[in-house]
């Protein structure tokens, strides 16, 4: 099956082209085309994964360009990580497309939406299959375009337009870093192929300083795409897009691209301790930073967005502490439970038409399906024992501990506590307490929306059992198979008390949230006063946007203003001078064209006379 | 250089020719200008005589003083024109033209001044007309015929030009 | 025999040519312009005839040539006047500076 894996990204591309060429005439029928083709992709991905379980890595390339002695190739590669990512991406994409059938009902541009989804899925699948950095960068940018289109889907709303632009520009900053990193890497190794690069790295061809620099530059690309601090600000704003899009792009796939990038380039990062430190510290800081913001946000989707940033930080932390398996494992489980949470949030929004959690409450009895599914997702992300998030988070804590970095370990523990707290704050504010919405307005979502949530819910619960300390570490062993020397063992061993601590921390967070938001035994201002400085800082997301606005944006605006004056007065002046002088010449010329034959004759004779006089004066026939 | 009859004759004739030209420029009435030019044409015929070109002189008198002048007078009379040809405006134009003509004249004069071709005895004055006739009908017979065709074309063209508008004018 | 030198004839021709040129370029009446051009042609004819007698190789050719020139001048005068007539009929003027419809 792996020989035909190139078909996997082609199917969504076909969707995109068909829907694009049909020009919106297909309307809701377009959705079925999208779903069928994505299903085909998914089936192929699963077959490829199943085959990859036993067969070796499959890679095929063909020559694309040859520049001097350098061959640029194009092709695809199916290794463990790629196969896993293919399944995750096509699976989430499929579920989101099914879900959208219900969620986007009545939407004018139904087929456009599915065309964009197809395009994005194509780009993302192409990204994870790329066998070299050029192809990866190519799809990397296509993913950016797809996300831009989807975030700005409601382009008639100013906020959506701004959010789309912000996402595009912020990720572009990271992309520049990635591009420079790729170019430097090519300069050092003369190749874009992963294998040759890793061989060069292990052979010690590249100086240590260069490796660190390249790794950090590539990591900047990952920072942009995965919404890590300090380029995270676009991700919460990107919630302006339709909720299914948030589930697909900003939970499961695109933001995971950064993590995927670091995981793919893992041997390169391993070669530089400094780069690993940067990755780990950035991840750890982002995790706790975003989690703290999430505790006070009032918009359901924004809470989930900050939670996503925080969880991505977790993954980076895992990768940075040499926990390759832990990072990828958490990437997978996170894709399931965060997609579930977003879809469930979409279901809630669909039911009550608001995103403000302070106006929700008491929905537990009303949303008989959404409620338990949301609870499952919340429990999973909080690290409640025996759910998927529990195992993957445990793996990360183990990795951090095994790495010996106790500061990062404590950061991760505190973040776990905060995660449990803010997720249950969200849950209780939505589902517990007094109902603030008229009963007849609340309607459970249709089955077409519940079905994907149900599938994801099951996976969020059981997805962790492919890698547990008790039933075997199947995923880890498979992931590092044939590469143990580089990627480390499939499982980090750690003291048992770490697991107990994680459970305790999660339960403590849940309990605290319960006391404050469900039972209201404790006042809401028990932790932090509403008018305190800390609360305001958190509510304003550490003023990061404002800092950017007053420093970078104003600086660029200043430069722009200066340049616009240069343009208007210097360049414009030059242009006006040129056009003016030409125009003046033309006017003089047209005055000469008076139609007076005698004047013409006179001027002609004047010229002749001048020539003759010059001729006579300078000699000519006289000498 | 002793004064000979030829020299006196030349200066007299040349004076009349230049005077006619100057009058052409300075006179205001159009008809007067044409009459002044007749003098110039006649004196040029005299110059031809001095240059022992009797036949050309006769042709000059017949064609220019006779035919062309008469045609021009007809042209003047057939067109309604202001009695006086008031000079065109634009002093700087005339001035620069005069300057250019002066420069041109000086430049050409410098060329003439240095010209020194030894005088050779010629037999042009003996049976001048016969010589021209022999030359025309032997050596230059083809240009002669071409010239006759040209004249015919000019004749037809002039008639067509003058007549076509008449018909159109009649129709309208 | 001391006669009139060649240069005297040439200077006379030059003066007549300059007068004709000035008239052709400044006079407003089209008929006068035509006549001025005839004068210029005459000046050229004087040169031809003069060189036919005083040239490096004197011969009758110069006179024959001047005859051709006179013929062409006559034809030119006839056609020029015909054009002038039709122009006058269309535009009711013979002033050269009013004949400017060819501009632009």
Report on the structure:
Chain A is mostly helical. Chain A is 72% helix and 3% strand. Chain A is built from 25 helices and 2 strands. In chain A, helix 3 runs parallel beside helix 15, helix 15 runs antiparallel to helix 16 and helix 15 runs antiparallel to helix 19. Chain B is mostly helical. In chain B, helix 1 runs antiparallel to helix 2. The longest helix of chain B has 31 residues. Chain B is globular. The mean pLDDT of chain B is 83. Chain C is an all-alpha fold and 104 residues long. In chain C, helix 2 packs antiparallel against helix 3. The longest helix of chain C has 31 residues. The termini of chain C are far apart. Chains in contact: A-B, A-C, B-C. At the B-C interface, helix 1, helix 2, helix 3, helix 4 and helix 5 of B face helix 1, helix 2 and helix 3 of C.
SSE series of chain C:
HHH
Strand order, main sheet of chain A: write it out.
1-2
What's the total number of strands of chain C? 0
The global form of chain C is elongated
- What composes the largest sheet of chain C? none
Distinct helical segment count of chain A: 25
Oligomer: heterotrimer
Strand content of chain A: under 5%
**Sequence of secondary-structure elements of chain A:** HHEEHHHHHHHHHHHHHHHHHHHHHHH
Distance between the termini of chain C: 61 Å
Share of residues in helices of chain A: over 70%
Q: Output the number of helix runs of chain C.
A: 3
End-to-end separation of chain A in angstroms reads: 97 Å
Largest β sheet strand count, sense and barrel closure of chain A: 2 strands, antiparallel
Give the radius of gyration of chain C: 17 Å
> What percentage of the residues of chain C does DSSP assign to strands (E)?
under 5%
Helix content of chain C: over 70%
Descriptive terms for the model:
heterotrimer, A: about 625 residues, mainly alpha, two-stranded antiparallel ribbon, 25 helices, 2 strands, about 5% strand, B: about 170 residues, globular
Summarize the structure.
The complex is a heterotrimer of chains A (623), B (172) and C (104). Chain A has 623 residues and is mainly alpha-helical.
Produce the secondary structure layout.
The complex is a heterotrimer of chains A (623), B (172) and C (104).
Chain A: H1 7-22, H2 28-54, E1 58-67, E2 70-78, H3 80-103, H4 110-129, H5 133-151, H6 158-189, H7 194-202, H8 208-226, H9 234-237, H10 243-252, H11 254-264, H12 266-270, H13 273-294, H14 300-320, H15 324-352, H16 370-382, H17 388-403, H18 406-431, H19 447-462, H20 474-479, H21 484-487, H22 496-518, H23 533-539, H24 544-592, H25 597-617
Antiparallel strand pairs in A: 1-2
Chain B: H1 5-26, H2 30-50, H3 54-78, H4 91-113, H5 128-138, H6 141-171
Chain C: H1 6-26, H2 30-54, H3 61-91
């Amino acid at each position: 099956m792996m020989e035909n894996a190139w078909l996997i990204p082609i199917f969504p591309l076909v969707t995109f082209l068909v829907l694009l060429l049909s020009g919106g005439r297909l309307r809701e029928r377009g959705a079925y085309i999208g779903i069928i083709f994505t299903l085909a992709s998914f089936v192929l991905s699963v077959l490829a994964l199943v085959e990859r379980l036993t067969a070796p890595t499959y890679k095929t390339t063909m020559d694309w360009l040859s520049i001097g002695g350098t061959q640029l190739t194009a092709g695809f590669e199916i290794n463990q990580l790629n196969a896993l990512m293919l399944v995750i991406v096509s699976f989430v994409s499929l579920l989101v497309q099914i879900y959208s059938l219900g969620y986007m009902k009545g939407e004018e541009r139904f087929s456009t939406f599915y065309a964009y989804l197809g395009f994005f899925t194509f780009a993302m699948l192409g990204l994870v299959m790329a066998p070299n950095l050029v192809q990866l960068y190519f799809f990397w940018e296509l993913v950016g375009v797809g996300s831009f289109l989807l975030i700005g889907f409601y382009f008639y709303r100013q906020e959506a337009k701004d959010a789309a632009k912000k996402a595009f520009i912020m990720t572009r900053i990271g992309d520049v870093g990635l591009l420079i990193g790729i170019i430097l890497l090519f300069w050092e190794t003369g190749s874009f192929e992963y294998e040759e690069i890793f061989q060069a790295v292990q052979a010690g061809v590249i100086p240590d300083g260069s490796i660190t620099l390249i790794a950090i530059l590539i990591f900047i690309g990952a920072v942009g795409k995965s919404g890590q601090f300090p380029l995270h600000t676009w991700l919460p704003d990107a919630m302006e897009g339709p909720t299914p899009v948030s589930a697909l792009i900003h939970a499961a796939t695109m933001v995971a691209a950064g993590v995927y990038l670091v995981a793919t380039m893992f041997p390169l990062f391993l070669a530089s301790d400094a780069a690993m430190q940067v990755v780990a510290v950035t991840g750890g800081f982002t995790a706790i930073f975003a989690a703290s913001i999430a505790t006070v946000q009032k918009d359901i989707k924004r809470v989930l967005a900050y939670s996503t940033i925080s969880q991505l930080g977790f993954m980076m932390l895992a990768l940075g502490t040499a926990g390759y398996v832990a990072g990828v494992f958490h990437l997978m489980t996170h894709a399931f439970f965060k997609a579930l949470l977003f879809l469930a949030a979409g279901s809630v929004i669909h039911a009550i038409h608001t995103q403000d959690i302070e106006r929700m409450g008491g929905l537990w009895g009303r949303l008989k399906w959404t409620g338990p599914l949301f609870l499952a997702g919340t429990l999973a992300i909080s690290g409640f024992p025996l759910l998927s998030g529990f195992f993957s988070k445990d793996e990360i804590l183990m990795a951090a501990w095994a790495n010996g970095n106790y500061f990062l370990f404590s950061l991760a523990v505190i973040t776990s506590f905060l995660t449990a707290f803010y997720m249950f704050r969200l849950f209780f504010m939505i589902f517990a307490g007094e109902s603030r919405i008229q009963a007849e307005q609340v309607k459970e979502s249709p089955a077409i929306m519940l079905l994907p949530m149900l599938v994801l819910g099951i996976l969020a619960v059981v997805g962790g059992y492919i890698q547990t300390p008790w039933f075997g570490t199947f995923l880890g062993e498979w992931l590092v198979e044939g590469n143990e020397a580089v990627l480390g063992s499939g499982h980090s061993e750690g003291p048992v008390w770490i697991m107990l601590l994680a459970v305790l921390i999660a339960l403590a967070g849940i309990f605290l949230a319960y006391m404050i938001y469900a039972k209201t035994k404790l006042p809401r201002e028990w932790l932090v006063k509403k008018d305190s400085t800390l609360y305001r800082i958190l509510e304003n997301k550490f003023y990061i946007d404002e800092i950017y606005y007053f420093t970078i944006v104003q600086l660029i605006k200043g430069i722009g203003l200066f340049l616009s004056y240069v343009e208007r007065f210097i360049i414009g002046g030059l242009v006006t001078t040129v056009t003016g002088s030409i125009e003046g010449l033309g006017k003089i010329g047209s005055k000469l064209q008076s139609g007076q034959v005698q004047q013409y004759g006179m001027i002609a004779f004047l010229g002749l006379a001048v020539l003759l006089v010059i001729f006579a004066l300078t000699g000519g026939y006289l000498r | 250089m002793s004064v000979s009859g030829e020299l006196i004759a030349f200066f007299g004739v040349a004076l009349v020719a230049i005077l006619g030209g100057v009058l052409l420029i300075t006179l205001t009435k159009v008809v007067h200008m044409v009459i002044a030019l007749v003098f110039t044409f006649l004196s040029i015929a005299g110059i031809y005589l001095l240059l022992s070109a009797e036949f050309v002189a006769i042709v000059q008198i017949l064609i220019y003083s006779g035919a062309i002048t008469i045609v021009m007078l007809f042209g003047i009379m057939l067109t309604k024109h202001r009695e006086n040809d008031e000079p065109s405006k634009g002093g700087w134009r005339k001035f620069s033209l005069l300057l250019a003509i002066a420069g041109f004249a000086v430049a050409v004069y410098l060329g003439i001044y240095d010209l020194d071709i030894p005088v050779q005895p010629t037999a042009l004055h003996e049976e001048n007309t016969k010589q021209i006739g022999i030359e025309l009908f032997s050596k230059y017979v083809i240009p002669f015929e071409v010239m006759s065709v040209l004249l015919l074309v000019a004749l037809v063209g002039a008639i067509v030009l003058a007549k076509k508008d008449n018909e159109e004018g009649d129709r309208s | 025999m001391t006669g009139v030198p060649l240069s005297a004839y040439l200077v006379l021709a030059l003066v007549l040519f300059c007068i004709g040129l000035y008239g052709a370029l400044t006079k407003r009446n089209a008929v006068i312009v035509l006549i001025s051009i005839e004068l210029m042609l005459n000046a050229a004819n004087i040169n031809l005839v003069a060189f036919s007698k005083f040239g490096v190789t004197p011969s009758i050719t110069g006179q024959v040539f001047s005859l051709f020139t006179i013929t062409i001048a006559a034809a030119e005068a006839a056609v020029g006047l015909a054009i002038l007539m039709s122009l006058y009929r269309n535009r009711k003027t013979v002033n050269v500076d009013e004949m400017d419809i060819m501009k632009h």
